[in-house]
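Input for the complex:
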Amino acid sequence: MSSHHRAPLKFSWNNPEFRALAYQFVVVGLAALLAYYLVSNTLHNLATRNIATGFAFLEREAGFAIGESLIEYSPSDTYARAILVGLANTLRVSAVALVLATMLGVIVGIARLSSNWLVARLASAYVELIRNVPLLLQLLIWYAVIGELLPGPKAAFHPLPGIYLSNRGMLMPSVDGPAVTGILWGLVLAAIAIFAVSRWQRARRRQTGVPARLWPIALTFVLLMPTVGWLLGGREFHLSIPHRSGFNFEGGWALSPELFALLVGLVTYTAGFIAEIVRAGVQSVSHGQWEAAQTLGLPRSRVLRLVILPQALRVIVPPTTSQYLNLVKNSSLAVAIGYPDLVSVVNTVLNQTGQAIEGVLIIMAAFMTVSLTVSLLMNWYNKRIALVER
Amino acid sequence: MYVPDRVRPPAFHAQRSALKNSVSHRKIAMKLVRLAAAALIGLCLSGMGHAGQTFDTVKKRGFVQCGVSTNLPGFAFTDSKGEWQGIDVDTCRAIAAAMFGNATKFKVIPLTTQARFTALQSGEVDVLTRNTTQTMSRDTTLGLIGVGVNFYDSQGIMVTKDANVSSAKNLAGATICVLPGTTTELNLTDWFRGLKQSFKPVLLDTVDEIKRAFAAGRCDGITMDKSQLALARIAFGNTDKYVILPEPLSKEPLGPMVRQGDEAWFNVVRWSLNALLEAEEYNLTSKNVDEIAKGSIPPNIQRILGTSPGMGKGLGLDDKWAYNIIKQVGNYGEMFDRSLGAGSPMKLDRGLNALYTKGGLMYGWPIR
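Predicted:
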């Protein structure tokens, strides 16, 4: 064992460890020098051409309006706030699209494996068609279809009082006020509480065999916590019902056709890819698992849910992470159909201020942060479902 | 068979470390370091910026590189033969005629609104003749400078006749389609802020998408320079269905831009523009300039046509620089008629772009 004992580092060129360290030092030094040179050269060139640099432009007034935003925004706000609005829009469409794309992808993937010939062929046709048409084209088609199909605001569909469907979007009544935030927080807390209680009940049943019913407790939470939130919020809220006014509609909450087209396009496109990944995962589980589960008397749907999918997840999760990241990046195509996402807003800022480098750096930083967060979460999930072998 | 390290004889280890210390390893490492250093030095040398003289570069190259719109009827478009036409392209031809005596020595580089300024800043084009509004922030923050105006325009809003709106002050709550990242967008926002009315913008990044969305009813109105609205209305085919509201939302002096720090080139572009206007004021056209040059001419026309020598020297050009422009491209009136006026499908009025003697704003500076 004595040759495995670490010898002290001799500062001699003959010592391979010292040599390795020295080379690494030199390479890192050269890389740092290169980076420093590139940055200082860029700054020098920008200065000699009188092009403004720095991020001070973020505090200037934006001066342009944004079609829809999750947070309060007016043209007299700063560029920084406008970029935040764009980021919020991107996150909103990405989050909703991720959830819907996963659901649709799983359904289509399993449908493709169905023993029903028509269902399987339909799913195959869907996947093959969606995967082979460029996404930008699909988005433009969805946007044009929605624009042509739906009538103008004067002739809007009016199926229920307070709900209008036209080419300005789908309008619905909305509630606003501190009581509403209270109710929403109550629902969130209720969801967390129900989740925790269900896990505790399942663990207890595994250990002691005592069965328990979740629904009475769940019902109590769902009724109780939002009510507490409503009471704490002061019990007042404003109901806003959309109505025709002038050119458009006033009031209510609108789902704009841009957002809808972007969602539909992104969801159908990514679902096509996720469907194939799910299919690969399900097929990767050995057939013996199916047979064994069926000998236990489980019907096919429960076999799939309880035995096959948990094992298939190990194959499904890593490629699905890539698809999620693709979806987040593809949301930047929103600029072609008029949805004000991050890239669209920063492009505008870039044009108005002329500071292209800072604008692109902002876009890169935002996307890297979002992508790294998504992949971190997915990697944590991947580790959790990994098969732990002895 | 696997033999653990501790069983091997000491000579084995000695041999292995001797091999590692051998000269070949060091040679490779040294080569890599030298290569990296050479690459770095090469980059340093190539990083000498484009802060040189554009005039000399263009002269040496033998043709002018102009940045124009990708496809804007009347300003920069390709005709049925594939030749670039339009008043922006003709401005480029005038610069080429002044520089080289030959109006064909130019190259057109189509640019989108998002790429236009970066292309000029980086040296990809020598001059931006791209119907660009001359504004203060563009002069002071981009490292570029506006040279002059070749088209005075103003921004307007176009709506359908069915909207029953006769003034741009009655558009509260309307949905308006607009190009993102332009002064058009900013002016539209300022207009509604000034009236304390709200509106909904829809940002589509090509003019074609905007026209399509407007025709489909997605927006109540579209806003662009009034000349472009007139052209769009013609493109829709049904000109009676659309109304361009009278209020001007802004002033849009459109003209070429060049890089800062390049006075020789700046002078060439500016005085090419002025030559076009001076020619129209003194009734010199591409058809009659030869005849006029032969006859007896007053001194100011002598200076323009170069028959009295000395005017070209200050610009670094041939004395016949203005004569070449007039002969090969025409005067401003001919340029306008050809692309936007009576000689084109657009049939736009001269309006603000008439000579100052006819009530417009076009006023050439004297060539003396």
